[in-house]
Amino acid sequence: MSSPQSSLQQKRLRRLEKLYGRLKQSLVGIGFIFPGSIVRRFMPCGKPSCHCATDVNKRHGPYYEWTRKLKGKTVTVRLTAEQARRYEDWIRNRRKLKKILMRMQAVSIQAAQNQATTMLRH
Ligand SMILES: [Zn+2]
Question: Has residue 59 got a pLDDT over 60?
Fold first, then answer.
């Protein structure tokens, strides 16, 4: 026979399993993931006669760069506007994935804590 306490814990565990299942499901639709970040820049060309030399609002661009850490070093790659749009989506996917994983971990810790009280009480 189970005590009221342990049935409450079973209930909690079922609720946590349901929540965990929903989080797992939300991973299914995530597309490609990409590290780093995209930077959008406007640059002067260096010619003293060019309008960009005197007016910051008339600098050339936008230029897109993808920046990431690789073995502790910052690596920058020049991108086209189309690449920048695509990779921004993939970077968003990665952030979303990480957020979901952190929530899955938090739910797992709650499940373990729920289990720990059971063990202490027996
Ligand atoms: Zn210029």
Answer: yes
